[in-house]
Design a protein that fits this description.
The chain has helices at 14-24, 30-41, 67-73, 80-83, 101-104, 129-134, 169-179, 285-334, 439-444, 448-467, 472-487, and strands at 46-51, 55-60, 111-118, 121-128, 143-145, 155-161, 188-191, 194-195, 204-212, 215-223, 236-240, 243-248, 262-267, 400-406, 409-416, 425-428, 431-435. By secondary structure, it is of the alpha+beta class. It folds into 3 domains: 14-195, Histidine kinase-like ATPase, C-terminal domain (Heat Shock Protein 90); 204-283, no CATH class; 312-487, no CATH class. Strand 3 and strand 4 form a beta hairpin. The chain is elongated and about 110 Å long.
């Protein structure tokens, strides 16, 4: 004889529903995002959000709801949107899933009212927090049927009154911009009569599209200009159905300050989200597949960021080195006896192609112009000598090289990295190497003026030693004279 079965009813205290909503939506402002997304799911083309001191109204021109629609709207965990995942008019991928946001709103207000129109049906449901809790085990909400002309057009209005929390407009705007599909066609949101627009990032953009067994992963990563780098809202926005769920770093947390320059978004509609839509199910195969794709993309971003940073630093170094050599050239012209290569330095007319280090700004009486060879009796172009390769280790691709000619001779200056423990400056034959990794160089290169002065100091030091390496004191005096004439303006002369 089979044992007799009994059934135990499962009940949930209504106050717990509100508590669950509060916990799932740790920031009560999230309910605004969910109501706007409900309007999107209902094929609304315009959502008007009006915020005042004691109320919030969210009005849309979507398809509205009838009796059955209202029952689904207030049903927790309804599967309706899973079974009809596309909206009928614009064929949108519906965003809503769990239907708990409206209960979370009761953590911020005393009264939640829904007025909706679909065809000739107009209904109003009032969700009063205190009355609902007093009703004990009765779960029904009062539905009031209104005249068909009570509301002119189809759509839904949600009104929250008796606010118990204060909401700042800037916070609401930020949440709507990030948490709703503002980039979707035929969809617009206005906040207190101001149309909200998606964020637009400026910088080097890297679009991508990768396939996985669960679906495509696509988006765009942006490397911001250095001046726009910020530690606020770090990471890449991960979106599901055009809505940001959260920001992820995908390994960038080890980059230091560089990660402040990286922003962007990735869309992966197949990712499973948590019930509060603030995170992902990270132990899922879908999340691992998305992470694999994004780690690959972020590594490409890192490589490009290194190249862009080096390129920018190279331009800064090039300008500073060019300025320093220009000043040193003019100082040597004024003090030809300090030149280790002859009585008179002559600028190379080809110097412009390597940064113009030997060019003079204008020809002055009694001075040779760039490209002139003083006292030369040779006719035709001078035969070029084969350049000798430096004896130091191979230069990096980020090396900055400039040359300054003195008659038939000249000096080459190379700024490159030789390690923090390497010498600050050293010379091989007629090539001066400046170590950009040296701590002193790093400190002085933070400002343009000190950068130029430091380069000139190092170059004049080596030129002075070329003149007489056996007498350091005399070399120091020569260097002082060159630096003085390079940076101190004299009457009637340019620096």
């Amino acid at each position: 004889m089979a044992p007799e079965k009994e059934y135990i009813p499962v009940t949930v205290d209504k106050s717990h529903i509100i508590t669950i909503g509060e916990r799932l939506y740790s920031e009560s402002i999230e309910f605004i995002r969910e109501i706007v997304n409900n309007a999107y799911d209902a094929d609304a083309s315009l959502v008007e959000v009006t915020v005042s001191e004691d109320s919030i109204e969210i009005r849309d021109n979507g398809s509205g709801m009838d009796r059955e629609g209202l029952r689904q709207y207030f049903s927790i965990g309804s599967q309706m949107k899973l079974h009809t995942s596309k909206s009928p008019v614009y064929h949108r991928d519906r965003i809503g899933q769990f239907g708990i946001g409206k209960f979370a709103s009761l953590s911020a207000c005393e009264r939640f009212e829904v007025l909706t129109k679909k065809g000739d049906f107009v209904g109003r449901v009032v969700f009063d927090k205190q009355e609902w809790e007093k009703a004990g085990d009765v779960w029904s909400l009062p539905l009031e049927i209104m005249p068909a002309d009570f509301r002119k057009d189809s759509g839904t209005t949600v009104m929250l009154t008796g606010l118990t929390r204060r909401f700042e407009l800037v916070d609401i705007e930020a949440r709507i911009i990030e948490g709703t599909p503002l980039k979707a066609p035929n969809f617009r949101v206005r906040l207190n009569s101001h149309t909200l627009t998606p964020r637009s990032l400026t910088g080097h953009k890297m679009p991508f599209l990768e396939g996985t067994e669960f679906g495509p992963v696509h988006g765009e990563i942006v490397i911001l200009p250095q001046t726009m780098a910020t530690t606020e809202e770090l990471g890449i926005e991960v979106k599901v159905k055009q809505v940001t769920v959260r920001r992820e770093l995908f390994g960038m947390e080890t980059w230091g300050k560089a990660m402040a320059r990286v922003r962007g978004e990735v869309n992966a509609d197949f990712l499973p989200v948590t019930s509060d839509r603030t995170g992902f199910v990270k132990d899922s195969a879908e999340y691992r597949a998305c992470t694999t794709v994004m780690e690959k993309q972020v590594e490409e971003v890192r490589k490009l960021l290194v190249r862009l940073t080096a390129k920018k630093e190279g331009r800064v170094v090039s300008r500073a080195l060019n300025d320093a050599l220009h000043r040193i050239y003019k100082a040597l012209y004024r003090n030809p006896e300090l030149s280790p290569f002859g009585a008179l330095p002559i600028a190379d007319e080809d110097a412009k192609g390597i940064g113009g280090a030997g060019l003079l700004s204008e020809k002055k009486e009694g001075e040779p112009h760039a490209g002139e060879v003083v006292g030369s009796t040779k006719e035709g172009p001078e035969k070029k000598k084969r350049k000798k390769r430096p004896k130091v280790k191979r230069l990096t691709p980020n090396a900055v090289i400039k040359k300054m000619r003195f008659g038939q001779y000249g000096v080459s200056c190379v700024v490159d990295g030789f390690g923090e423990e390497g010498p600050e400056v050293f010379t091989e034959e007629t090539t001066i190497y400046i170590n950009r990794d040296h701590p002193l160089y790093q400190r002085e290169s933070t400002k343009a003026d000190t950068h130029i002065l430091n380069l000139a100091r190092l170059i004049t030091q080596e030129i002075a030693l070329m003149k007489d390496s056996k007498n350091p004191r005399q070399a120091f005096e020569r260097q002082s004279r060159l630096l003085k004439d390079a940076f101190v303006e004299k009457a009637g002369q340019e620096t």
